[in-house]
Amino acid sequence: MFEFEVGGGDKATYLKMAMRIEERYNTENLCTDGNKTYSYYKISKHHHVTKSETCLVESWNCRLRHYLARLHRKTLCYSKSIKALKTAILLLIYKEIAPAVSV
Fold first, then answer.
1. Rounded to an integer, what distance in angstroms lies between the CA atom of residue 82 and that of residue 96?
2. 74 φ, ψ to 5°?
3. Pair 45, 28: CB distance under 8 Å
């Protein structure tokens, strides 16, 4: 349901994410911004380059930066561990999604 990859906006990070999405989902449409990284490997039949269709992803990015201070900047206060960062992101997603899903 949710896929994310921790890393920079480089080709290696994108390829990790693209391979995982391609393996788990049948993707017909992909909407991305104009970053040239997404043109290295196609994971869908149709690739739309537009900012208007990426608003949901951008709203999640904004929410992550708002609630997780560790995403604001690197300081001595927060662990630099990738595992700790992924766990914090998953906990926030679970906190935000679980109340809406549970009955």
1. 21
2. -85, 120
3. yes
- Report the distance separating Cα 19 and Cα 67, nearest Å: 29
Which residue in the block uniquely carries the two structure tokens 């490997």?
41
Q: Band of the pLDDT at 79, cuts 50, 70, 90? A: low
Name the residue type at position 63.
Answer: R
> Is 28 within 8 Å of 44 (Cβ atoms)?
yes
Q: Rounded distance, CA 103 to CA 96, Å?
A: 14
pLDDT band at 50 (very low <50, low <70, confident <90, very high): confident
At residue 78, φ and ψ (nearest 5 deg) are -125, 145
Q: Which residue has the tokens 């909407």?
A: 31
Partners of residue 46 on adjacent β-strands? 29
